[in-house]
Amino acid sequence: MTEEPGLGLEAYVEAIEGHLRARRGVDHTLSPRDFGLARAWHQAGVSLATVLVGMDRAFEKEASVSSLAYCRRFVDDLAAAGPLPPPRPAPPAESVPVPELEEVLAALRERMNAFAPPASASFGPPLRRIQEIEDLLAVASRPNWSYVRAKLREIDDEVARAAVQALPPSELRELHAEAARAIERHRGRVDDAALRDAQDRFTLQRARERLGLPRVSLI
User: What range defines the domain where residue 136 resides?
Assistant: First the structure.
């Protein structure tokens, strides 16, 4: 993820508060819970542009958004689309809820298998990775969850790339135009590289949504 050079936590939070004020039309200060969420994004290297575009997506779904917490799913979805941030020290990975994971993997596999050629050709790599994880879960009583989570992220990255390739050219042009509109309101407020990064993530995420492909790495 692209983090604006030199943007500290205070400026990051102030920009988020300012955007909430602009969208809500009333003064807004982050609650302790919302501040903790903003700080976690900052520490994880989520660019301000990605946060602001994710917030816009939340307001498109629900005009009466009153907290940053409501925007979390939209920001996390965008942050999870595209390149990973530089490696950071992390606590040991917690176990994944296996029945839920198996259900989501099965749903994703079924959806990808439903596409006819030529779109279906794009989904070969992620389908093979899904099979690898399902085989692992079937035989390992105590899987290496750090490994599993890394593989889930790889699946999501490959699915996003495949979704873009599978879209008809006319629909892909529509998504590119939509992504350009989504970042335009923030031009001049954040770093241009972060804006381009947010635009790419927006396109990847919308392609997944357009094709109805669930994400697995956020489980």
Answer: 98-211
